[in-house]
Amino acid sequence: MTASKNGTPASPADLLGFEPAPAALALADGTIYRGRAFGARTVGSGEVVFNTSITGYQEITTDPSYAGQIVAMTYTQIGNVGVNPMDDEARQPFLSGFVVKEVFDTPSNFRSTSSLDSKLAAAGVPGLSGIDTRSLVRRIRDGGAQVGVLSTDPTFQGSLELIERAKRSPGLDGYDWVARVTCDAAYSFDQGAWPGIEGQLPRAPRPDRPLTIVAYDFGVKRNILRLLVEQGFDVTVVPATTPAADTLAMNPDGIFLSNGPGDPAAVEGVQPIVRELVEQKPVFGICLGHQILGLALGGTTRKLKFGHHGGNQPGKDLATGKVAICAENHGYAVEAESLREAGEAVEVTHINLNDQTVEGLAHATRPLFSVQYHPEASPGPHDAAYFFARFRQMVERSAAGERVTGVEICGAVGESAAGAGKAE
């Protein structure tokens, strides 16, 4: 590929003689990466993380779980299939910045309605392209996640001022990012999965018996809600701090705790709500919802060195021994030992094979279970989609008056909470 004057790969603008807009990413450790701007012309700050997914950049940029973070993609070419409204996972992107090796501004896909560049520009999110993303990823992987500042403002490109702002900017610890992304009021959701294309294999029909659930919005992704609808649930989404009494007054058959951003221990007011709900209703949690459930049961969480972000994480089901390739997006993990010390009859059902951290929990006496990774496959593989059917089974049996537990639904695990999650 032809090189530009600064040694980075040449963009179409370079080849046509246009001067690309400058952009820079400064890390709190003093490292500076300089490249070309796309998206909005502004300054964003946040914890810098890397995502190893090859596809699904639109789902990543619109995932509310990335609020407060600058996301760097390890795959080199991003933007080639454009964007479209059906694939948005939230009402807007909430991430602080987006970093890629090469961005495509002329997408080619029959579903595309606009470019990634224009979408991020409209959302006020700055983008940086043309840097050595391998170098950035190695720095984060070896040194751990750290705060950075991404500037596409041509008047704010000085190294010293960028580094100083990065040093002053807050990270994720101790900050309630859920309050920024949750919905303002309750609403019903009835949209099912994308219908697909002509000639595909038919999907399984939805269950005939309707059941009602309340979904707590900590930053919920739309495809999670779509797959809950596909399981025959009537879904009502409520704000993160909706009192348990208000939810129970709706008399739902079950409760869902959604994914979301940031430090689970910093989400204000939700643990007492969840503690009350688990006493009376079946509960299923995903990602941040999994962590909040663990905290509500008396456990603790810890921050991971650089988190799990991508569509190729190995998650092992301890009941079956099967390994699923999973989509994950989290920087914190539940401490299994803390649940044992809290006296809860909780078993670890899934672990991450890369570092042995807790990826799933189930209660031995209550209808409760949770999973750390994202089974809705947006982005990512479909290996873990069975969790939604498990939730349907648990809620259905509970609504019929049966005494059912999370461990029963998840299978005979054979590992106590104390037996996993100790790896760094």
Description:
It is a single chain. By secondary structure, the chain is of the alpha/beta class. It folds into 2 domains: about 160 residues, 3-Layer(bba) Sandwich (Glucose Oxidase, domain 1); about 240 residues, Class I glutamine amidotransferase (GATase) domain (Rossmann fold), CATH 3.40.50.880. The protein is built from 13 helices and 19 strands. The protein has a 10-stranded mixed beta sheet, sandwiched between helices. Strand 15 and strand 16 form a beta hairpin. Helix 9 packs across helix 10. The longest helix is centred in the C-terminal third of the chain and has 14 residues. The protein is globular and about 70 Å long. The two termini are about 40 Å apart.
Percentage beta strand: 25-35%
Shape: globular
End-to-end C-alpha gap: 40 Å
Q: Which radius of gyration do the C-alpha atoms yield?
A: 22 Å
The CATH architecture designation of the largest domain is 3-Layer(aba) Sandwich
Order the strands across the largest sheet as they lie in space: 10-12-11-13-14-19-18-17-15-16
CATH fold group of the largest domain: Rossmann fold
Low-pLDDT segments, ≥5 res: 1-7, 412-424
Q: Which CATH class of the largest domain applies here?
A: Alpha Beta
Structural class of the secondary structure composition?
A: alpha/beta
The strand count comes to: 19
Mean pLDDT rating: 92
How would a crystallographer describe the biggest sheet?
10 strands, mixed
Number of domains: 2
CATH superfamily of the largest domain: Class I glutamine amidotransferase (GATase) domain
Count, helices: 13
